[in-house]
UniProtKB/TrEMBL annotation:
One Gene Ontology MF term: RNA-DNA hybrid ribonuclease activity
Name of the coding gene: R1A1-elementORF2_560
PROSITE patterns the UniProt entry points to: RNASE_H_1, RT_POL
GO process annotations (BP): DNA biosynthetic process
Residues in Reverse transcriptase domain copies: 53-323
Residue stretches making up the RNase H type-1 domain: 481-609
Name of the protein described by the UniProt record: Retrovirus-related Pol polyprotein from type-1 retrotransposable element R1
InterPro entries per UniProt: DNA/RNA_pol_sf, RNaseH-like_sf, RNaseH_domain, RNaseH_sf, RT_dom
Superkingdom: Eukaryota
One Pfam family per UniProt: RVT_1
A single Gene Ontology CC term: DNA polymerase complex
Length: 753
């Protein structure tokens, strides 16, 4: 049967199931995604035909459109008000699959033709909140350089996604020249939708709003939002950016009083757009901030939206970052500090000084959650400002004190070493540099090396249409049982030099030809293995006989078999395989005596011994991150080496390490010398620094090695030669460590008596 659209393929559906969370809550039919996935695996042809028939006849089955609605309460709202809840539609998985097929095809068309406005940053591949925030920051800085005052107006939309009229969506699809088959299918997708709740006996038809919880919903909203962005292009001296339904109006002028007149037309245009599409702007939540280029602004313009004044504020929260008039970010970090303190207060319920969760668990919570929260927006707010650095380290101290269980008097430098967590300002600097390279495509300096965006492997950003997705299988093969040419490939990295080798044999195992090529040192073994396969396929693409390619790289074969082809070299291999039906891929185990594999391995190693580079490939992202990590370690080591703090701890741990995780309340008193020792009590509280025994000052060394009061503990727990052992040797000795805890515990009891 002939279809008037590109057919849905099993590979296309397979990729959709790869991206669906199989454990998500089901829709009204109660069938989870993993159950539907099993249906697909059992009969892919029937499943694919069903989806093709649905699109062909522009039918989105009614039962697939029914939604169970979960109401999520908004924080800080009056729960007696309907607007205090965010509705989330729980949809049928059958419908989700068809929904994703349509949404990916709909996304492909305007993105490919460039019809979507560049100032829309939400729900778009390769764009994030960081891009929107960077656009905002660049606009302010550019205006300041021109000695202009900048104004930023944030306009809040009330239930934007739930208010869009379906007829406007269909009209926008026609205007943008979307394919007819998509328009017809989306029309039926929107038509005759129901909300059901059997418990409350609710069965309600609704006729507007993009379904929240569907994949098409955000894409359809972008079409409506795009109308505003296009209209604002016609108005000079101002710019509108959007992230989903968050509208930000930016303008600059020589004086702030001029905004009262110059922004009347832009704000009216936004009102007209909202009225045209039956959307509501909430003036109460809308606000604006003015960024002066020199002295403080004295004239605050009067701005109105929907007949009501827009509120002026000195702090402005946009996409999770708090902007202040001077862009010094202190208001943002004050907010972050309060949130982190709240998180740490809750963690304290699980772990205190002498009981609770182990330090490794607390460190994992910090690295996976707290640190990510603190570092959000680092590419935007980071600078080498000393005050900013100190503020970041102040915030980092809060969770690190919880991990290490040390006294508050311990220096931040010592906390970094005990917890194995680098100074957060250095981590933020790394994030800033990486975003500069990958987000802004600007060259960066890593050590002595300058790296530009073109030097780096970037993910394949211009994919084929969704229906062209494909994978190529491989098998575990025995070279002796195959007909046709046998080609063995391998990649190698020795002494930081990379190369690949290829060896070709006929059916009688006679050597026909071989290749030994060196790559640039930044290449990874994965790239070398993939390059060998690519080179072999390309060399044999015009052969008419069967070609059997053998490799010991399972990772490359799995990438070729994957439905994702983000890596450029994998994408190129797949394009060659599309035209090479006579090529088969096999995996062989490495270093088990397979002659061809060993020969290819020797060719790859021989290539690494040469001085000349045959192929220069882009540097993998992992290599950049490794170099950045090495740079971070160097900076951290220099800071630790030249710090004036915690020199006793420096004598024990002169080298920084990510592996450290010392969270013992008693042992860390020894490592930091901050605890129940008289010498410490003397420094902070003016007490006597002498030990009660009267023989010496009450230092850590005295109590562990010399004080006669603890001789019985030393005899019981310490090894015979303890006097020649260092502090770290005793701490790492399980029995001696128990004795150290006993000594510190007794000192603590004595100091509290």
């Amino acid at each position: 049967m002939e279809y008037g659209f590109p057919l849905v393929t099993a590979h296309e559906i397979g990729k959709i199931f790869q991206d669906i969370n199989l454990t998500k809550a089901p829709g009204p039919d109660g069938l989870c995604a993993n159950i539907i996935y099993e249906f697909f695996k059992v009969n892919k042809e029937k499943f694919t035909n069903m989806m093709n028939e649905c699109i062909n006849y522009a039918i989105f089955p009614v039962s697939w459109k029914q939604a169970s609605v979960a109401l999520i309460p908004k924080v800080g709202k009056d729960l007696s008000s309907p607007s205090a809840y965010r509705p989330i539609c729980l949809l049928s998985t059958w419908g989700k699959v068809l929904d994703k097929i349509l949404s990916r095809r709909l996304t492909f068309e305007p993105e490919k033709t460039g019809k979507l406005h560049p100032n829309q940053f939400g729900f778009r591949n390769g764009r994030s909140t960081l891009d929107a925030l960077q656009f905002f920051k660049d606009f302010v800085h550019s205006s300041k350089l021109n000695k202009h005052v900048t104004i930023a107006i944030s306009l809040d939309m009330s239930n934007a996604f739930n208010s869009v009229e379906w007829r406007d969506v269909i009209s926008a699809l026609h205007e943008d020249g979307v394919s007819d088959y998509l328009i017809f299918s989306i029309s039926d997708f929107l038509n005759n939708r129901k909300i059901v709740d059997p418990n409350l006996q609710v069965n309600y038809n609704y006729g507007k709003g993009v379904p929240q919880g569907s994949c098409l919903g955000p894409i359809l909203w972008l079409l409506i939002a795009d109308r505003l962005l296009r209209a604002m292009d016609q108005i000079k001296n101002c710019v509108v950016t959007m992230f989903a339904d968050d509208i930000l109006l930016l303008a600059s002028d020589t004086a702030s009083y001029k905004f009262s007149n110059s922004l009347v037309n832009p704000l009216r245009e936004i009102e007209l757009w909202a009225h045209k599409f039956n959307l509501k702007i909430n003036p109460i939540k809308s606000k604006f901030i003015i960024f002066p280029f020199a002295k403080r602004v004295t004239h605050i313009p009067r701005l109105k939206i929907c007949g009501k004044n827009i509120r002026n504020c000195s702090e402005f929260k946009y996409l999770g970052l708090s902007f202040d008039e001077r862009l010094n970010w202190f208001s943002h970090f004050n907010s972050v500090k309060g949130r982190v303190s709240g998180i740490q207060y809750k963690i304290k319920r699980l772990s205190r000084a002498t009981w609770g969760a182990c330090p490794e668990v607390l460190k994992e919570i910090y690295l996976r959650a707290v640190e990510k929260f603190i570092l959000y927006g680092a590419p935007i707010w980071f600078s080498e400002n000393v005050k900013l650095r100190n503020k970041i380290l102040q915030i980092q101290r809060i969770p690190l004190l919880g991990i290490s269980k040390t006294y508050r008097t311990v220096s931040t430098d010592a906390l970094h070493i005990l917890c194995g967590c680098p100074p957060l300002d250095l981590v933020a600097k790394n994030d800033f540099i990486l975003f500069k390279l990958f987000g802004r495509h600007c060259p960066i300096q890593v050590g002595d090396q300058t790296i530009s965006f073109d030097d780096v492997t970037h993910l394949h950003s211009d994919p084929d249409p969704p229906w062209n997705v494909i994978s190529f299988p491989w098998a575990i093969g025995d070279p002796d049982n195959q007909i046709g040419l046998k080609i063995f490939t391998d990649g190698s990295k020795l002494n930081n030099k990379v190369g690949f080798g290829i060896a070709c044999f006929d059916e009688r195992d006679e050597h026909l030809w071989s290749v030994s090529e060196r790559l640039n040192d930044e290449a990874s073994v994965f790239i070398a293995e993939a390059m060998a396969i690519f080179y072999a396929i390309d060399k044999c693409k015009d052969y008419s006989c069967q070609i059997n390619i053998y490799t010991d790289s399972r990772s490359v074969l799995m990438a070729i078999n994957s439905l994702k082809d983000d890596h450029p070299i994998i994408f190129q291999i797949k394009n060659l395989l599309r035209k090479s039906d006579h090529v088969k891929l096999f995996w062989v185990k490495a270093h088990v005596g397979t002659y061809g594999n060993e020969f290819a391995d020797s060719l790859a190693k021989r290539a690494t011994e040469r001085d000349d580079i045959d192929h220069v490939v882009p540097m993998p992202k992992s290599s950049i991150k490794y170099k950045m990590r090495e740079s971070l370690i160097k900076d951290w080591q220099d800071r630790w080496k030249f710090s004036r703090n915690a020199r006793f701890l420096f004598g024990i741990f002169p080298e920084v390490s990510f592996r450290h995780c010392f969270g013992d309340f008693y042992i860390n008193q020894i490592l930091t010398t901050h605890g129940s020792f008289p010498i410490h009590q003397s420094r902070f509280f003016g007490k006597s620094s002498l030990c009660i025994c009267g023989l010496d000052e009450g230092t850590v060394s005295h109590f562990i090695y010399g004080c006669p009061r603890f001789s019985s503990i030393r005899e019981k727990f310490f090894p015979v030669n303890f006097s020649v052992l260092g502090f770290l040797d005793l701490i790492l000795n399980k029995r001696a460590c128990q004795g150290l805890r006993e000594i510190v515990s007794l000192l603590l009891c004595a100091s509290l008596a």
